[in-house]
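Suppose a colleague, Dr. K., hands you the sequence of a protein chain of 352 amino acids and asks what its three-dimensional shape might be. Before reaching for any lab equipment, you can write down a predicted structure in token form. Begin with the sequence itself:
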Amino acid sequence: MAPFKSTLARSVGKLLGVYKETDLSLRGDVQSLRKPPSIPPVEASGGTEIVTATKKYHVFLGSSEQSLSVTTSGACEVLVVAGGGSGGYFYGSGGGAGGVVHAAEFPVEAGVTYKASAGNGADARASSTGFGNNGNNSYFKPSPAPAAPSATNLYAKGGGGGGYSGDGDPAFNNTHRDSIGSGGGTVGPADPNDGDTNFQSTTQHPTGVNYSNRGASGQPADNGGGGGGAGAAAGVNQDGSISDPASPGGAGRPFSNFPAPVLAPAIPSPVRSDWTTAVGPTGLFAGGGTGYNAPATIARTPGGGGGWDDPQSGVHNAIDYTGGGGSGPNPGPGYGGNGIVIVYYPTEPRPA
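The predicted structure, expressed as tokens, is then:
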């Protein structure tokens, strides 16, 4: 007897075949429904970790060297903000914001430990005359690379100290400190070019981009110029133009993947509230400090730079963990804000 052939079996076979391949074109081309390959997300530990449904952040505060240990290779977005400069004393100028280095696609390797250090902001001057102090450097680097500018590292330099109404700095023979991050301002009357910055060239990893700007020359005679910010040079317009009067500091620069509402839990109290306001939802960092400008009142610079009011209050200090510059009120200048290092990456696989 001939073998029994089931039409049901043939129908089931055809049905199952739909899940293997299907005709997706009008010309009869057959394409597979298999999922395309994907890249696994980075996996790492270290610093203060903030995890959302789709993202992970590692936040590093303080100048002591800290570790990020990587177990799965990939690319991270890294923000390195140096410490801000302090304001100059006695009709002083604002301190420059700490330099910022941003890498959108910094490669990290499994089995490698990376080191982060967030430089402190500059202390305020205690004497009756004198320039502000420069802020301290920040970096992110693979271990055991030296903590210095190099093609393997992200290295941000501290903000320049603000000028004061006195003689030029004998170490540099000018009316302001030479800048290493954004420039400190000068006190008028002064040549507008006195606020130009002599940025030291810094070797970076190829993915790193530097952000820093010049301070302003204060006008008229008793006004202090603002310090430069990561987003703009100092000046009344805060948009890169130097105007008269030039007391406001340069605005900070936004980095949209580093919003304050998400990162705020990593910032200690009581700084957290002011930090959240200064950085905001757009991720503003490194605003320059305000220069002396009595009797006007100037709010804190966007991005954490110190402001000015008379009688002066705590607003002349920059906000820590923004890299902002301190302001230059009379008599007591403001200190620079501490820096910060943040590493970010998605926690979901990406298309290959």
